[in-house]
Amino acid sequence: MSYSTADSFPVVTLDDVRGAQKMLTGVSRVTAMEGSRHLSQLVGAPVHLKCENLQRTGSFKLRGAYVRIAGLLPEERAAGVVAASAGNHAQGVALASSLLGVRSTVFMPKGAPLPKISATEEYGAEVRLHGTVVDETLAAAQEYAAGTGAVFIHPFDHHDVIAGQGTVGLEILEQCPEVRTIVVGVGGGGLAAGIAVAVKALRPDVRVIGVQAEGAAAYPPSLAAGLPVAVENPATMADGIKVGRPGDVPFRIVAELVDEIRTVSEYDLSSALLLCLERAKLVVEPAGASPVAALLRDPKAFEGPVVAVLSGGNVDPLLMQRILRHGMAAGGRYLQVRLRLTDRPGALATLLGVLSAVDANVLDVSHVRTDPRLGLTEVEVELHLETRGPKHCAEVNSALREAGYIVID
């Protein structure tokens, strides 16, 4: 590893990333690169998906975790390792430790998805739940390291971790040598920094664009200030990039080498996850879908060919269910309607007949009969409907009104 003569921060180089690639041979997968016809049509240039959601443990995190732990001295390995993570780094550390014969303890936020907790334990780590956001969990893990002598494996703020994540960039250049833009999700910045180191050293003409969730976007204010700045109470469904403060090491690299940081909304994320599932047949978690969300938000802003890095696929099934419904609503394919009708036998059947005639699929029906706003013979009905899109939603509303129903909302 190279070190800067100007300060104490290590400089991650192309040689470091290449060394990490050799170390990971036979450990991590060279993940697939899949073309996306739908996104290509939107962008007006070829768009490819780098499928790190198909990596071992379900995300890119194994790469950096393995390189970091493999570089420990024998006495450090004997002391064991400790990590903190919302799930993906946890699994990466757990598997890397097991492969290398090192004892691991992993701190996870109390709200971490149960499948991620179970998977981390199955890979061989002892799991401890602490805090509600990654930053609180990090503090607990660092305190444990100080008290036990275990080596703390940071999820993004270490040069070995960044070098390991940078192997994704080398694979992108090998699989898509004509690439002009790489889009990657950003939390603490380790993956974006690693990719930028590898790509800019070999192809400085390629643009590297980072993507953050609007509710957890620490990089824009940090870049404006010239140093890492914490954002209070980061909030997003994309737990993999819900980091309140950039790492010191990746921040310096991102500031120097990443061309742009964009932000996306929860609406964008849910729409992107739905698109990945329906069009690409890929299960992707919200953080992993963030590059696709950026493409959907402003498709003409990216010079092609474009590679979007799907960084992970570990999503809680219950969260997936909520996100899919949110994504359907965002795409105009889920309609919630409240209306009033006369409370008499057959009234609901008549209403459902109107909806059937316009091919609206009824998902849920609820009645309100005791509201003081209702007349003696009125009932309020709330319907959750699945539709084909915004145009179909308008047709449904029009059909209801033409049938004489009073649509409240």
From TrEMBL:
Give the protein's cofactors: pyridoxal 5'-phosphate
Pathway as given in its UniProt record: Amino-acid degradation; L-threonine degradation via propanoate pathway; propanoate from L-threonine: step 1/4; Amino-acid biosynthesis; L-isoleucine biosynthesis; 2-oxobutanoate from L-threonine: step 1/1
Q: List residues of the ACT domain.
A: 336-409
Q: Which GO molecular function annotations are given, in alphabetical order?
A: threonine deaminase activity
Q: Which InterPro entries match?
A: ACT-like_dom_sf, ACT_dom, ACT_ThrD-II-like, Ser/Thr_Dehydratase, Ser/Thr_deHydtase_PyrdxlP-BS, Thr_deHydtase_catblc, TrpB-like_PALP, TrpB-like_PALP_sf
SUPFAM superfamilies the record matches: ACT-like, Tryptophan synthase beta subunit-like PLP-dependent enzymes
UniProt-listed CDD domains: ACT_ThrD-II-like, Thr-dehyd
The record, for Gene3D superfamilies, names: 3.40.50.1100
Subunit-level organization:
In the native structure, TdcB is in a dimeric form, whereas in the TdcB-AMP complex, it exists in a tetrameric form (dimer of dimers).
Describe the family membership recorded for this protein in Swiss-Prot or TrEMBL: Belongs to the serine/threonine dehydratase family.
Q: What is this protein called?
A: L-threonine dehydratase catabolic TdcB
Species name = Streptomyces akebiae
Organism lineage reads as: Bacteria, Bacillati, Actinomycetota, Actinomycetes, Kitasatosporales
